[in-house]
Structures
1.
Amino acid sequence: MRITKESLLKNARDVTEKKLAPDKNVLAVFVVGSLLTDDPFLGGTVDVDLLVIYNGEPPRERELLRLSNEIHIDIAYESNEEYAKPRELRGHPWRGWNLWDPILLHDSGRFFEYTQSSLRAQFDSPANIHARATYFASAARETWSEFQSGNRPDSLKFLQAVANAANAIASLNGPPLTERRLLAGFPSRAQQAGQIELTGKLMTALGANNVSAAEIETWLPAWHESFVTAAAQPFNASIHPTRLAYYRTAIEHHLQGEMPLAALWPMLPTWAQAAEGGSLAISQEQAWQQAQAALGLAGAGFEERVSALDALLDDTEELLERLAF
């Protein structure tokens, strides 16, 4: 069966009509994420991101619906209270972009019309662009400060800080970069910001200079085993059997592409999340520890990674200061 954007949208409409819209508390349903781009497929896989705006407290935060090995629908639920002040959303990098230009599938009342029209006014003003970038930079710096205060090495928290630092730059020229394309998409965003040298600093923060594409490829079986083990005892919607092929094909796509080291993302954050669940076998834990050690995300090298993150943030914050109004 040939998979196209049109067929994926049909699936999204069917799920909305049959599963979501009948709930009277569902105020609106949108398609967001990669399906809005010209080429949402990566390694032949794709997810369909739906955002459900719920009247009051949603029944759940997230839900995954498997359509095939290559496709699934990822449904996020959020309370309408999070969108009650559209003007403030202009400075929120995730919610702001979600409402900027989604594909509307369901709207009860005038939620979408009112919220989007208020949000779009001055969304692209320098002040609001700066606010969205600062959102990420501040979060990354806060985590860096925690490590300075003596917090023990935590690779998952550190990786989130690196992603936030990258998106502080990315947000100056578009929506945040998502997990499958973070490293691959960063160089062009850094170039648009006139900061192409930050690509090297980002890779240094990750310890990517310490490993080769060939070494990363040898980690793939261990990553796969860890993901499968963790997904058998669901504790995190990202580490779910439905998303295994979604991540694996992205990793393989990057390894075979022009920027092989981009395979480190999504490999590292998903591996860290799998380990966080505490269900890995001893051999799987050891494989993850070895990968971290090679990158400097654990042991003696961690302090160097934190220093590299500091250097990346220093340059980012200097740029944001120059752009401040």
Note: The CA atoms of residues 32 and 102 lie 5 Å apart.
2.
Amino acid sequence: MIFQAPRGTYDRMPDQQRLWQRINKVLEELSNSYGYDRIDTPIIEDAKLFSRGVGDVTDIMEKETYTFPDRGGDLLTLRPEGTAPVCRAYIEHGMHNLPQPVRLYYFCPVFRYERPQSGRYRQHHQFGVEVLGSDEPEVDVEVIELAWNLLKRLGISDIKLKINTMGDSDSRELYVSKLQDYLKSKIDQIPESIKERVSSNPLRVLDSKDPKMVEINREAPKSVDYINSQSTEHWMTLTRNLDVLSIPYEVDHTLVRGFDYYTRTVFEVVPSVEKSQNTLIGGGRYDGLIKMLGGKPTPGIGFGMGLERVISAINKTSHESDLNDYMKLLVAHIGDAAKERAVVLSSRIRNAGIPAVLAPTRGIKSQLRYATSISATHTIIIGDKELQNHEVVLRDFSTHSQETISEANLIQVLLNIN
């Protein structure tokens, strides 16, 4: 008998390792430049973690998980996705006591029993990030920018960003009801294989690639029309900042993602020429998930990247920029106008290869304490005076000194320090 790797799995051979190592290095270095720390969670988890977090009536839980009783009778599941385990670890280890938000990234194998096809395996590998403890739309922008820049740094430039908003939990509930009413009015036109979802999980109907459903879904209610004022403000701030950062996007009203826990922002980065299985990065906000898993109400947002799909899309001749992580900046801000400018400056600094973190919205003294807690070596401070004069204050924590610098000279000054 000649043994082979199980269907839907593969061996990563020595001649493939260099590319994987290069990709992992880029992902790790760029994540560090945004202030993220690594976390690793077990391959196996309590099965209820995923049924509570992902949802009982999703395709993943109904058809795709590897779930089994162990020798002690406990029901375990091989990890099908990365977010729920990270949230479980956040709760278990009391990470809510750390300075918020907590920024985490991970590499992990994930397991789904599905039909193997191009870029999709039963065991595949995922890179992901999670930001826990902030509901600010600027954090959504940061996460999306990181996703966008990761692919660009890997030489994948022919891509597009698709975004949508689900609103908060109340808005989502209202939208689901309206969507369900609409789909029931079209029930005679819906294929038999999809009809059951209209009652059990109507959002999943929007994902269908069936030609009949594409036309029906085009006329379906849009979630953005049912969000409340707070979610509308969140959505408008998100899109405005994406415009400021010159990150092009397409609003896709059928984009809902595959898990029950998503609220407000959802997004995908896909190749410009779309195929049936083509999502390179997908993610969104999940403000109710940690509470659902037994923790204190904690907002969160993140994304997952399928590394096999990235491997198939990558330009193997590209070379990533070398990053130097000696300097770590916190970009502090005083006032709404300064915060908007801080978003732009944070992006410019990172693109110059210098790690930078946008400070959470709070008093300036608290922001400076936060800089210390994340081991920042320097901080940039922007207030009304600095905005008016096109300047920033640069503070060096090692010498306890500070100086005022024009924005035009900022990057060169930072590079000279670094």
Note: The first helix runs from residue 14 to 33.
3.
Amino acid sequence: MKKKSGARKGGAQAARKPLIGKLVIFGVGLIGGSFALALKEQRAVARVVGVGRSRANLLTARRLGIIDEIAADAATAVRDADVVLLAVPLAQNAAVLAQIAPHLGPQTIVTDAGSTKLDIIAQARRYLGAQFGRFVPAHPIAGTEKSGAKAAFAALFRDHELIVTPVRETDPQAVKKVAAAWRLAGMRVNKMDAAAHDRMFALVSHLPHVVAYALVGQVAGYKDAQTLLAHTGGGFRDTTRIAGSSPEMWRDICLSNRDALLQALDDYLAEFERLRGLLAANDGAALEQRFAAARDARARWLKRK
């Protein structure tokens, strides 16, 4: 009987073996930090190493238990790593890939959390060489307007979607492991073509952020801006909430997805011109019809969620 009990105990211990032994996070902010906390909550990672530009932020991350240690440099960080997550501003990805490429082990998986995919795939192909097949492009669709390690929380990804955009060379086992990690963080996982992904998010994510920044910038540019802003209500606040996001991050996203975002902006300007024309023509019936169509489309979208 004791032997059987011991066998069960050993099996339970094996079952509790973490999915990831050593996780290295470049950029321990909202996304990277929340990923680490979610995996720790699930006991799915044994050790988390943090790398970043701000020593103060890394110290905060270690104090909060997000990471277990701070790496001295990129080469030391990725040594013997099971998974490397790039959660830095998009403009830093190429430099990080170039730094870590010579030091990656043959089984190390590199993945990212950026909201554009064609650019990071091209960069990974350029810098990772033979290791490119172990790169898994991914986009967790979750976040807040806050940033830094203090903004991280384990529940950020629950009931949200992760999109992976593997290419022909991507190792299916690497995709499987990355997807499993994000599922443990609470996400639903779907696959998508990278170009289709970038067009989609130019329209439903990147464009809204540009619009929010533009609206605040317009109102703030008037001489009586303080008076105007003192009288804003919920509409202005709700429409511009995402203008509180990191300007550096959104600068990089806009430039990274430049072609798709320019097309989205052109289409948006055309819609604005259409509404302006109706207003100039004093065509109330057509204006109401346009608003009603948009309202109904939004209602259908919310009903499906």
Note: The CA atoms of residues 51 and 73 lie 7 Å apart.
